[in-house]
Structures are given as C-alpha cells and as structure tokens.
Amino acid sequence: MSDASITPQAATGEAEFGDYIALLKPRVMSLVVFTAFVGLVAAPVPVHPVIAFCAVLFIAIGGGASGALNMWYDADIDAVMKRTARRPIPSGRVGAQEALGLGLALAGFSCVMLALAANVFSGLFLAFTIFFYAVVYTIWLKRWTPQNIVIGGAAGAFPPMIGWAVATGGVSIESVLMFLLVFMWTPPHFWALALFMKSDYETAGVPMLTVTHGRPATRRHIVAYTLLLAPLAIGTGFTSIGGPLYMAVAVVLNVLFLAGALRIWRRDETQAAADGYKVERSFFRLSLIYLFAHFAAILGEAVLGHYGMGGW
Question: How far apart are CA 122 and CA 113, in angstroms?
C-alpha cells in the first residue's frame, strides 16, 4: 500500500469546488466520455436520446470515480512529481480520506445508475473498469512492473466497449477493435511522455520503462507498438464501423505516426537533450490528435450511415 492509503493527509486549506472537479481528472474523463459516446453511436442498435445521455453521464461519473481513487492512492507519488505536485491532495487542499470517500461514492452511484438506465451488463462492465483502473493498475501494476502502462492501458480502452454494451447489451468484434485501438495506442503515447519526463518517474520511484530499461529501449518499444498499431487501425476501416472517411483518416495518421516513431527511434540521447526533446514532445502531441481523429472518423461514419451514406 502507498503512504497515502495508510496515513490520511489533512487538508491545509479550504477546498474549492474546482478542487473536487480536479480530483475527477476532467481531461482523462473527456477521453472516456468521447470514446464511450462513439462506441454507443457506432453500435448497430439505436438508443433513445435520453437513455444515451444518461448512460454517457454515468460513464463519465464512473471515470471521475476512477480518477479520484487514483489520486487518493497516488498522493505520495504526486507530491514529488513536478507535473502533479499541485493536485488537490498533495497540495493539501483536499484530504486523502475525502478523496477516497468521494471516489467510492461516485463509483457505486455510477455503476448502479448505468445498470438501471441501460442494462445490467453495462453497469457491471463499468464496475469492472473502475476496479481495473483503481486496483489492478493503480495499486498493483503501476509500482511493480515497467509493463504498467501496457497492461493498465486496458482500463482506458474499455469505455468504447461500455458504450457499445449500453446499446447492444453485449460485446462484438467491432467493440473489441475499438478497445484494441486505444489499448495499442496507450504505450507509445505514454512512453513518449516518459522520454521527456523520466526524472519525474525516477524521483517518484515509478518503474516506467525509461527508468528500468533506459530511453534507448523505450524508443525501440515505441516503434514496435506503432508497427503493431498501424495495421490494426487501418484494418478496422474494413469493418462495419469503418468506411472511406475512416480509411482516409487512418492511412494519413498512421503514416505520420509511424514516421514520428521512426524519428524517435533514430535519435540519440545527446541530440534529444540538446533540443529539449522536441521530437518526442511533438510525437506526444500527435498521439493526442491520433486517437481523437480515429474515433471522430468512426463517429462520422456512424452519422453518415444514419443517412445511408456511410460505410463501404
């Protein structure tokens, strides 16, 4: 267990509403909401707009619960990392036990309400996702293995499957492909960040790949995962959630993504340090556009399909 989970951290200042919102990791939540919404809309079964709205809302709340539980457990790590030191718990604005209570309450509420609003399977799926992120990734994998991002990435890849389950009550090859798209994208995305944030992870004692195996090995891993990701992403275009729009986006972005990964692989550490990891930072920004654009294209195909214009 982490220090944050053993010794409650007292808040040193009065928390504001924005501090509790920050506990929910709104930027991560936005990705959860978007991919879940795409999964719901892309599903072949129509969903009543009110049910769809409620379902996405409860999925968002579940994502926020995961964020709060993650911040509760990782408060000791966050306190020593530059990019996280100002988060609500390490800064003393919110107590650790407050975050734990909020996370547990939101988790229970979101899962029960999703089950009632949509179907029991989607509610159970959301509960499993929260458990996977808060326990399997945060408590177990993150501090134990350099494969933390690889395995733990599944938690961030489940939302489109949950959205699909809201509509269909189950799982299909299309929802699995959306899961795999996020799952395979996660390692190169986070390893690019780790290349220029290595010192933060070293200070916190997190066994990120850059810390345990070094930057050169991390660069090779980024290329390897990008080579696996590209055919998966392009191949998805030939399924029922793909089409000409998706294929055009996928081809262009995967060419750019692979080119960026190869540029990272060819870099030596002296050159990277000299320009402040400019290429690595650029690749990280591209990775954000990459995932959003793929899911936006899936959404576009679904909307076009509604008017008889999407798909092949």
Answer: 10
- The number of residues in the chain equals 312
CATH code for position 106 = 1.10.357.140
**Separation CA 153–CA 118 (nearest Å):** 25
Together in a domain, 184 and 161: no
Cα–Cα dist 27/71, whole Å: 14
Q: How far apart are CA 297 and CA 204, in angstroms?
A: 38
Q: Say if CB 159 and CB 59 are below 8 A apart.
A: yes
Please give the residue that has the higher pLDDT: either 61 or 83: 61
Pair 205, 64 in one domain? no
Task: Judge whether residue 289 has pLDDT over 60.
Answer: yes
Residues 303 and 296 sit within 8 Å (Cβ to Cβ) = no
Give the percent of the chain with pLDDT over 70.
96
> Which amino acid, 6?
I
Higher-scoring residue by pLDDT: 85, 277: 277
Query: pTM score, two decimals?
Result: 0.91
46 burial (CB, 10 Å; 0-12 / 13-18 / 19+) is exposed
By residue range, what is the domain housing residue 272? 172-306
- Distance CA(163)–CA(32), nearest Å, equals 10
Residue range 40-76, pLDDT digits in tens: 999 999 999 999 999 999 999 999 999 999 999 999 9
Give residue for tokens 């986006």: 249
Q: How many domains does the chain have?
A: 2
Q: Which of 170, 188, 212 is the last residue of a domain?
A: 170
Q: Is the model's pLDDT at 1 over the cut of 70?
A: no
